[in-house]
Specification:
2 domains
Length: 469
């Protein structure tokens, strides 16, 4: 028998309730069972959504929770489990787009060897996110029905396939295939991880884990930007990209160890809905993610190439600019995760981040050959536009029931990935047409200003909804 992902030995674990309603895990000698008072009920111990907690003081270290419908959740009040769980979710966020990040930081070598135009290179990221748009819609529904563990396995396996295709690429067609598979891989990363956090962590513990898991994108960006460019100089860009197969395999092992199994389906909202009164909540944020997403993915795709072609940095150093963005983003997302959970006004955070991103892109637009301005603009971008998504995602987890979180996240991912798909190809075409990056960075700043307007609209909508309730 297993409890979540943990095998149980001869001394089985049972969930016990007493007359006070206190709930705890105990070791018993009989078969697996849930004991209620003097009655014993056979019940598989599986992961499930949080519904009711024991009274204050009743939960000790290693204890679990009895949920509606009689389903038991594995114990999660264990720091080692939370660290492993959060690490797995961070890898889920980072491994999906890892092949694209490798392409971005290796772009000076890839573009030169294969003779790609800027528009052709930008179309790789656009294709990837165009694939992610419909997949995220379907994936959100599948997550709510099946639970996250199975889809995490699919996510990590497909990420490994994308990396392998990149490492074997001998032509532009191979790069297109790698980008398409990477799009599928990352399409469910937000729905899966959001639903797992909502289902297995109580309020008060979600913010830090949300920040850590959302920073998985920046952790990957940082690691890829710092390690792959210098390694590519030594062994070639294909061999350096193949190194990403190692964390993909490790992530599969962590999933088996730390992620609980299938979730219960009791209390699910009707198919095709996200929950009453949440339409405005979802669509305002969807618009925000689209506008900021266009600017974010354009910057992710072209910052290293900009540093190489305009600022004049060597190829190995130019790729490391993405690492700087990632390093700043790691701290930013973790800090914003905790702040967003504690603040009563996440809309104000979103407005502020979008307006600060306007200044970041303006700095990049006027960097020219000034390396110091490039670094300031890149760091500011990493702290603002690149981190805003964590505030959006924690707003979803806090505001919607666990059984609809996957679907709502899938809807918002529609805006995010549509923006990601539009950004690189539009930016590349603009640079090719004008011969200058300045207009592209200016357009990114304008989009972030529009995103601030969308965040302000969401904030007004939520205040109006609060007054009506």
């Amino acid at each position: 028998m297993t409890c979540g992902s943990r095998a149980l030995g001869p001394a089985q674990v049972a969930l016990v309730t007493g007359g006070t309603g206190a709930i705890g895990w105990r070791t018993v000698e009989g078969p697996d069972a849930v004991m209620m008072g003097e009655r014993t009920h056979r019940l598989p111990l599986q992961g499930c959504c949080w519904r009711r907690r024991a009274p204050s003081g009743a939960r000790g270290k290693g204890q679990g929770t009895l949920l509606e419908g009689g389903i038991a959740e594995p114990p999660v009040d264990n720091r080692a489990w939370r660290v492993g769980f959060g690490t797995t979710l961070a890898l889920a966020m980072g491994m999906g787009p890892s092949a694209l990040y490798a392409l971005n930081v290796l772009s000076p070598l890839v573009v030169t060897e294969l003779g790609l135009s800027r528009a052709a290179f930008g179309s790789l990221a656009s294709l990837s996110f165009a694939v992610a748009v419909p997949c995220s819609m379907v994936g959100g529904r599948v997550v709510d029905r099946m639970g996250g563990r199975r889809l995490l396995v699919v996510l990590f396996a497909s990420a490994a396939v994308a990396v392998l295709l990149l490492a074997l690429a001998g032509s532009y067609l191979w790069l297109l295939a790698a980008a398409a598979v990477a799009g599928f891989s990352q399409s469910t990363s937000n729905p899966v991880t959001n639903q797992l956090v909502s289902a297995h962590l109580p309020a008060g513990r979600q913010g830090l884990v949300m920040g850590v898991k959302q920073s998985g994108v920046q952790m990957t960006q940082f690691a890829v930007g710092m390690l792959l460019p210098p390694l590519a100089v030594l062994v070639g860009w294909r061999a350096s990209a193949a190194v990403l197969l190692v964390p993909a395999v490790a992530a599969l092992a962590l999933t088996a160890r730390y992620v609980p199994g299938r979730l219960a389906t009791a209390g699910r909202s009707p198919a095709g809905t996200v929950g009453g009164g949440s339409a405005a909540f979802v669509w305002w944020l969807c618009g925000y993610l689209f506008l900021v997403g266009v600017a974010v993915q354009a910057a992710n795709a072209y910052l290293p190439l900009y540093a190489f072609e305009v600022v004049g940095l060597p190829a190995a150093v130019a790729g490391s600019v993405a690492g700087l963005v990632g390093a700043v983003g790691i701290a930013g997302r973790i800090g914003l995760g905790r702040l967003a959970e504690r603040t009563g006004d996440p809309g104000r955070l979103l407005v502020g981040l979008a307006l600060a991103a306007v200044l970041a892109f303006a700095t990049l637009a006027w960097a020219g050959s000034a390396g110091s301005l490039l670094l300031i603009g890149a760091a500011a971008y990493g702290a603002t536009a690149a981190t805003a998504v964590v505030v959006v995602m924690i707003s979803v987890v806090r505001s919607l029931p666990p059984q609809t979180v996957g679907r709502a996240t899938g809807l918002m991912s529609l805006g995010l990935y549509a923006g990601f798909a539009s950004g690189p190809v539009a930016f590349g075409a603009l640079v090719d047409a004008t011969g200058s990056y300045r207009l592209g960075w200016t357009a990114a700043a304008a989009l972030c200003a529009a995103g601030a307007g969308a965040a302000a609209g969401w904030r007004r909508s939520m205040r109006s909804r609060g007054r009506q309730s």
